[in-house]
Design goal:
Strand order of the largest sheet of chain B: 1-2
Number of helices of chain A: 3
Oligomer: heterodimer
Largest interface: A-B, 9 and 10 residues
Strand order of the largest sheet of chain A: 2-5-1-6
Structural class of chain A: alpha+beta
Number of strands of chain A: 6
Order of helices and strands of chain B: HHHHHHHHHHHEEHHHHHHHHHH
Helix content of chain A: 25-40%
Largest sheet of chain B: 2 strands, antiparallel
Shape of chain B: elongated
Number of strands of chain B: 2
Chain lengths: 115, 429
């Protein structure tokens, strides 16, 4: 079963950390990511640049695009990364998300496969 | 049961209640298709209604239903070649398991438990958990659930459809959680059962007789879980808690009016049921793993075994609340503890404990009603009337509203003028 795991966190809190804290937290995430990838539970995924780099493109019914600076929604917790999971069921996906080493919020959603 | 033959539809209703969850669980396990499983159970019930009135109710109605459902499943699946493996499973189980089916072997006990944990999965919202549990484990029809919650049947049907879709599309598994997850997942199940119980127990007002008694349904579900998980003390604690409430249900109303605990006629309590529930609670306590339901039941047991309100062991009750407060540090627990303190140390001490809770409980009618009672007892009549008035604004429950209106009519002058005194007449109970 494939799931998309979206990882959202408080960017301001991240910014407020010291360099040493950030390095330590990166080390935790990298170790975690490697372990999950080696176990075959993470198929792919990436960290994203901060939401200040996001651009939203909105299309109307006539196909006209409006381009706006910023992410879909302005919120305290912003999307910071994602992973595609391959695990047996939702419990396994929840267990994986629950072991994420940082104080973030994660959304797990099944991916539509075949038609 | 053997003397007067009962009408077939009555036996069918009773049997379905007991067997529906079992049938559905076994079929979901084999077929992996929730809707098909429910449809087959429904078909089997219809077949029973056709056969039983003329041919007589079979000796083992549960096994009869299971066999009927399985045969229909095989007929349905034969049309699709890809179900060959499932047909093999169904055929094997029909021949192997039928004699023992309705006696509840360990295998089908597991089925129901698995299904219950799926129904109460934390990835489903609370309303969906409640509807799924009542429908699939409790054997209630969608319409009956709607009536119980005063919600249109179509709303319940929608919730069930959405929940089942999520179970399928998000691949919510069908299993009993492993040991590491079990405490949290079991707590979720117990929360759902207690919520169903409270919906029935608190909402009942003695005048809506057509409304289904969800409290009894919840008690039945809890007793099922207690049978399936006999070594979980919190399950037994919750069951004891429900039974202690139900043992006093008769005395909660007099002529349609709500009667509070201090004023209840204790002769109307079911003392045999109270003894059994206390014994159950003691068994849970001996397992040595305390929890919120055991503590709440222990508090209720103190009330239920006291000869009168005045003779209640308030020291023990306050001590139990101190333990409960550690397990569950909520303002509601602190409010209830304060009310016990009122009996042990007097209303002034209790009022002092109540004041800091105003911010968090100010929107709850029972906070104001409790405060009004204490204010009346210390002679602050005007403030008492104001607090009762606030409580009245905050509740829609007709029985509670009547009680508050009576208090307000009495002017809040003295405890004797409150409904408590009026209800104590010899014929009131």
């Amino acid at each position: 079963m494939k799931y998309l795991m979206l990882i959202a966190g408080d960017e301001a809190a991240w910014e407020a950390q010291t360099d040493a804290e950030r390095t330590a937290s990166y080390a935790r995430v990298v170790a975690w990511w490697r372990a999950q990838t080696d176990a075959g539970r993470i198929v792919s995924g990436h960290e994203l640049q901060p939401s200040s780099t996001a651009t939203t493109v909105r299309l109307d019914r006539d196909g006209r695009a409006t381009v706006v600076d910023g992410p879909f929604v302005e919120a305290k917790e912003m999307l910071g990364g994602y992973a595609v999971l391959d695990v047996p069921d939702l419990d396994a996906a929840i267990a994986l998300a629950s072991s994420w080493p940082e104080p973030d919020t994660l959304e797990v959603r099944p991916i539509v496969t075949d038609g | 049961m053997a003397d007067a033959p009962r009408p077939a539809d009555e036996v069918l209703a009773d049997t379905l209640r007991e067997e529906r969850g079992r049938l559905t669980a076994a079929l979901v396990r084999i077929l992996g298709d929730w809707d098909l499983a429910e449809e087959l159970v429904q078909d089997a019930a219809v077949a029973a209604l056709e056969h039983w009135p003329s041919e007589g109710v079979p000796r083992n109605p549960g096994a009869w239903l299971m066999t009927a459902a399985r045969r229909r499943a095989i007929d349905r699946l034969r049309r699709h070649a890809r179900y060959r493996e499932r047909i093999r499973l169904l055929t094997a189980e029909v021949t192997q398991m039928d004699p023992g089916v309705a006696t509840g072997g360990p295998m089908d006990a597991d089925d129901r438990l698995r299904l219950l944990f799926t129904c109460c999965h934390p990835a489903l919202n609370r309303e969906a958990q409640v509807a799924l549990t009542l429908k699939t484990i409790g054997g209630l029809e969608t319409a009956a659930i709607g009536r119980a919650f005063l919600v249109p049947e179509t709303t319940i049907a929608q919730r069930l459809v959405r929940a089942k879709r999520k179970i399928r599309d998000a691949a919510i598994p069908y299993r009993v959680p492993d040991l590491a997850e079990l405490p949290a997942r079991l707590a979720e199940v117990l929360t759902v059962l207690y919520l169903i119980f409270n919906e029935g127990y608190l909402a009942s007002s003695g005048e809506t007789a057509e409304r289904r008694d969800l409290a009894r349904d919840a008690e039945w579900l809890a007793s099922l879980v207690a049978r399936l998980m006999p070594d979980e003390p919190e399950v037994l604690g919750l069951l004891a808690l429900m039974r202690l409430h139900l043992a006093r249900a008769e005395a909660r109303f007099a002529n349609g009016d709500l009667v509070l605990l201090p004023d209840q006629d204790r002769r109307r309590w079911d003392h045999a049921a109270i003894r059994d529930a206390v014994a159950l609670l003691r068994r849970a306590e001996r397992m040595g793993r305390v929890g919120t339901y055991q503590l709440q039941a222990a508090i209720l047991a103190e009330h239920a075994t006291a000869d009168s309100w005045a003779e209640t062991r308030w020291d023990r009750i306050v001590a139990l609340y101190d333990l409960l407060r550690r397990v569950e540090p909520t303002p509601v627990v602190r409010l209830n503890r304060a009310l016990a303190v009122a009996e042990l140390d007097g209303p002034t001490a209790a009022l002092a404990e109540l004041e800091p809770l105003a911010e968090r409980l100010g929107g709850w009618h029972l906070y104001h009603a409790a405060r009004a009672d204490l204010l009346r007892r210390v002679g602050r009549a005007e403030e008492a009337v104001a607090a009762d008035g606030r409580a009245l604004e905050l509740t829609d429950n007709p029985a509670e509203r009547r009680l508050l209106q009576q208090r307000l009519a009495a002017g809040g002058v003295s405890p004797g003028a409150a409904p408590r005194g009026r209800r104590n007449g010899p014929r009131a109970g």
